[in-house]
């Protein structure tokens, strides 16, 4: 039995037609499956919790949706040792799929995934991140990244953005992030941060614009915030911009978008297993683009090999 959690509202509702085509493939291949459609924000977490409590030794769970749905699913899984997770990206950003090298051809992805399941694949172990901060009751998992500051403000605005809906209709969803980044950069307040790493190092930064714990190399619609981050090395990467006036950051952003930040002093990319940031004033925090409130103390932690993942290309 294969379980599907499907968000047909992803990509502003354009996903329904793709899901119908997927169902045809499942029926043609006589696959035994159960599909659950999400009916409200947060529903995917409840569904994943129920599915992961089923008394089966190995549970194949496939997420059909965008990065938000994936984040909800991993935060519902109660026993990662029995779940093998597949991702069929049909959202607007799909950073997880991009970061994992999954193609945009959803139907071929599904066929590949079914082949893996038929060969009783155990999946490939990849790391997850975990973020703790005062606005969250319990720590939250992330598969792509969790950030504070500019990237989080942009994610928060994008969640309810009419601009995103409009640009999605024109297949220009990525442009939402660029426009919101420019607008937010000039309206946001920066802060100072004391950062303590579990390997014993500590540092102080001023005028911090963003700091993100990256599991994958990209976030925000494909921006390579941490060009060297890989999801199976037992480490996260702290991507930061600091000690720079906001107007200058505006001119330096193209280097970030091109993945050339190592040549620019104001950007950092520091590998770590666990670190805590103490901020001088609260910043917005996100996990995989999901809003995690306003916070002054943020801890990022790597959970090595936590997720068994159906790797397709
Ligand atoms: N039936 C529903 N009605 C309203 N919102 C929903 C429903 N199902 C899921 N959601 C919410 O929709 C949000 C966005 O979905 P998702 O991330 O899958 O798509 P997306 O935003 O198009 O893609 P991406 O995050 O990759 O840009 C999720 O965070 C989830 O909380």
UniProtKB/TrEMBL annotation:
Entry keyword set: ATP-binding, Kinase, Lipid biosynthesis, Lipid metabolism, Nucleotide-binding, Phospholipid biosynthesis, Phospholipid metabolism, Transferase
GO molecular function: kinase activity
Cofactor(s) recorded in Swiss-Prot or TrEMBL: Mg(2+)
UniProt record similarity statement: Belongs to the diacylglycerol/lipid kinase family.
Domain DAGKc residue range list: 1-135
UniProt keyword Metal-binding present: no
Residues annotated as transmembrane: none
Superkingdom of origin: Bacteria
Entry keyword annotation includes ATP-binding: yes
Lineage per the UniProt record: Bacteria, Bacillati, Bacillota, Clostridia, Lachnospirales
A Pfam family per the record: DAGK_cat
SUPFAM superfamilies to which the protein is assigned, alphabetical: NAD kinase/diacylglycerol kinase-like
InterPro entries noted in UniProt: ATP-NAD_kinase_N, Diacylglycerol/lipid_kinase, Diacylglycerol_kinase_cat_dom, Lipid_Phosphate_FormReg, NAD/diacylglycerol_kinase_sf, YegS/DAGK_C
Name assigned to this protein: Diacylglycerol kinase family protein
């Amino acid at each position: 039995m294969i379980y599907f959690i499907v968000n047909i509202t992803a990509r502003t509702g354009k996903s329904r037609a793709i899901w119908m085509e997927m169902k045809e493939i499942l029926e043609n291949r006589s696959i035994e499956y159960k599909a659950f459609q999400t009916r409200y924000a947060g529903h995917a977490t409840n569904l994943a919790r129920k599915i992961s409590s089923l008394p089966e030794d190995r549970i194949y769970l496939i997420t059909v949706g965008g990065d938000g749905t994936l984040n909800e699913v991993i935060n519902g899984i109660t026993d990662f040792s029995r779940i093998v997770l597949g991702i069929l990206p049909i959202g607007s950003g799909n950073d997880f799929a991009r970061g994992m090298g999954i193609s945009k051809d959803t139907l071929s992805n599904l066929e590949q995934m079914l082949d893996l399941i038929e060969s009783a694949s155990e999946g490939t172990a990849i790391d997850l991140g975990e973020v703790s901060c005062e606005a969250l009751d319990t720590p939250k998992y992330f598969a792509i990244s969790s950030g504070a500051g500019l990237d989080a403000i942009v994610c928060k605005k994008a969640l309810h953005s009419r601009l995103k809906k409009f640009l999605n209709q024109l297949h220009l969803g990525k442009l939402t992030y660029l426009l919101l980044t420019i607008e937010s950069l000039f309206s946001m307040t920066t802060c100072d941060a004391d950062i303590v790493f579990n390997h014993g190092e500590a540092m102080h930064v001023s005028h911090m614009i963003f700091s993100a714990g990256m599991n994958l190399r990209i976030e925000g619609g494909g921006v390579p915030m941490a060009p060297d981050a890989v999801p199976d090395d037992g480490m996260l990467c702290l991507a930061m911009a600091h000690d720079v006036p906001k107007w200058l950051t505006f001119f330096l952003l193209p280097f970030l978008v091109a993945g050339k930040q190592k040549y620019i002093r104001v950007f950092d990319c520091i590998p770590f297993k666990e670190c805590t940031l103490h901020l001088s004033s609260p910043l917005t925090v996100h996990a995989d683009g999901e809003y995690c409130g306003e916070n002054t103390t943020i801890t990022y932690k790597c959970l090595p090999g936590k997720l068994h993942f159906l790797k397709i290309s």
